[in-house]
Structure prediction request, 76 residues.
Amino acid sequence: MAGNQFFSSDDDMNQNVDNNSVNEKNNQEFQNLMEHSQRKYDNYWDINNPIIRIILIILFLIAVIGSAYYIILWFR
Prediction:
């Protein structure tokens, strides 16, 4: 009886195969999810997007005009 504990039964072998297939399926689903989520956000803040450029130019102009205003008030 003690010698048989090192040999696995057919049920154990089938369970290991099932676990391996489930792990492989889960790993593929995880890799697929990570690939799609990465692509989704890579180009979200694209500097060449015209809308983003307009927003950045407006923010830059507000910063320059505001700085100039405070500098002019400082020297008055």
